[in-house]
């Protein structure tokens, strides 16, 4: 598309009564600390070197997060050519005794489910990441363990199913932990996690709301959860919980010892007992990015998380030519007062994509361009064909930054439902028009 539209004539966030020009437009500047790194310190976190590496998930809380908010971020790295859509599902009530078909198996349906917005591969029922109307946000990671690897080929619940189920049924982060672990113990986890049927793994999760976060890690039916009340945390493709955890599967230590995963001496470490592999450099990279940008007092916000997700040198951000490109990204800003906002790309490579804002409200609308038809979305198709010139990228970044400024005002001051209903829809369709 020929770019002949002035910045001031395009309005991606038509939600505030005040003209867009009333808000300052500024190019994003980080906190001044270096984001990209040439070397990463080796950590004790392990993963097998022959397994694919994909996805990174982050959460930042007070005192680092600005305005006492909670900031979540995830890059979803998936196989080449796999399209990710953003779907909204309203809350619903269900008949007693009814079932729900997940990706591979049917399970008992809940009496009621919450409204959710999900970033999901088009071929599966579950989701890579998403949020619900209560401000609960979940993202998962593939982890590779020594526990029952052969059982992973049996079709049960996959980690992405558990993400969606936790959001549909969890009123808080703590409740979502209970939902996921209860279903894990009842139905198990397993089945192909790629459309090609060649990817199998156990799962870890970051689960958060506007008060706290949990890191939940699993090894088949074994699990442990660590509560995060302040500061920051990240996960990647490795177990990270060692001796310090707040919740666990029943008789975890005794069962791990009986199964031969722990010899019973010294402090029990979940990661040491169940991990299978070498050091995970991207977990170390993500941790360093957080240390560089979330160590201040109350400065970390949506722009900082977006910058982390766009960091190429650390390989947190993966381009479309990578074996497992970043196929979709999400940033959520959870406020203790009023609205929270969930930003989705719905397109590959966040450094070449636009984060678009979704706020739960009565009658909220989605865009047809970010929902799949015939295995793909029109936004994905036109994004892939577009000439992502420096001029186009600069224009879209400026629009994105204006939108971020407006949304920050909404999180501070509130807005009427009618001002928010078409927010995400309009942002998607504005981006689509630039590529068309």
TrEMBL record:
Coiled coil: none annotated. One of its GO terms (molecular function) is cysteine-type exopeptidase activity. InterPro entries: Peptidase_C69. Pfam families: Peptidase_C69 (PF03577). GO terms for biological process: proteolysis. Belongs to the peptidase C69 family. Secernin subfamily. This is Secernin-2 isoform X1.
């Amino acid at each position: 598309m020929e770019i002949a539209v002035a910045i001031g004539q395009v309005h991606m966030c038509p939600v505030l009564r005040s003209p867009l020009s009333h808000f300052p437009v500024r190019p994003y500047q980080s906190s001044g600390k270096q984001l990209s790194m040439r070397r990463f310190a080796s950590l004790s976190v392990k993963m097998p070197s022959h397994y694919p590496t994909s996805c990174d998930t982050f959460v930042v809380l007070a005192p680092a997060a600005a305005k006492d908010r909670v900031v979540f971020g995830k890059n979803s790295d998936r196989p080449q050519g796999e399209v990710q859509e953003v779907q909204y599902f309203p809350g619903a009530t269900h008949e007693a005794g009814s079932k729900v078909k997940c990706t591979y198996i049917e399970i008992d349906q809940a009496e009621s489910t919450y409204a959710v917005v999900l970033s999901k591969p088009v071929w599966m029922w579950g989701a890579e990441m998403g949020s619900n109307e209560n401000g609960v946000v979940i993202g998962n990671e593939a982890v590779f363990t020594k526990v029952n690897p052969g059982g992973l080929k049996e079709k049960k619940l996959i980690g992405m199913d558990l993400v969606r189920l936790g959001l549909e049924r969890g009123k808080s982060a703590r409740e979502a932990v209970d939902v996921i672990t209860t279903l894990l113990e009842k139905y198990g986890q397993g089945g192909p996690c790629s459309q090609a049927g060649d990817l199998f793994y156990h799962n870890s999760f970051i689960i958060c709301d506007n008060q706290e976060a949990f890191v939940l890690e699993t090894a088949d039916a074994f699990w442990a959860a660590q509560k995060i009340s302040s500061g920051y945390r990240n996960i990647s493709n490795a177990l990270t919980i060692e001796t310090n955890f707040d919740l666990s599967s029943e008789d975890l230590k005794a069962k791990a010892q009986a199964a031969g995963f722990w010899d019973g001496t010294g402090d029990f470490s979940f990661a040491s007992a169940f991990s299978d592999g070498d050091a995970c450099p991207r977990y170390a990279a993500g941790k360093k990015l957080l240390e560089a940008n979330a160590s201040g007092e109350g400065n970390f916000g949506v722009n900082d998380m977006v910058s982390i997700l766009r960091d190429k040198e650390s390989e947190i951000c993966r381009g479309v030519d990578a074996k497992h490109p970043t196929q979709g990204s999400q940033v959520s800003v959870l406020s203790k007062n009023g609205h929270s906002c969930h930003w989705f790309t719905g397109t590959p490579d966040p450094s070449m994509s636009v984060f678009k804002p979704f706020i739960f409200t009565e009658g909220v609308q989605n865009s047809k361009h970010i929902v799949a038809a015939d295995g793909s979305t029109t936004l994905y198709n036109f994004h892939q064909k577009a000439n992502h010139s420096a001029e186009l990228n600069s224009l879209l970044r400026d629009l994105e930054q204006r939108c971020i400024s407006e949304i920050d005002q909404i999180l501070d001051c509130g807005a009427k439902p009618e001002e928010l209903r078409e927010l995400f829809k309009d942002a998607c369709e504005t981006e689509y028009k630039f590529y068309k």
